[in-house]
User: What shape does this take?
Amino acid sequence: MAIHAHRHGEESNDRLQQRFKGQVQRTGLLKLLRERSRFKRAANKRILRMRALKREGYRATNRKKKFYSNM
Assistant: This one.
């Protein structure tokens, strides 16, 4: 994925740099590179299931709070 910016007429260096920076941010390239910069060990099935159960518990509590607003 090549990102490049050419100067338009009498465009200043600062404006050219801002335009290039905007192009880079829109592609999401930096976010992807930051994610890949550190090794993340894959979570095993047991851990994933425990997280899912915990999440469901939080959601159930929030639904109850939403329904019974005085809790």
Notes: The chain has three helices and no strands.
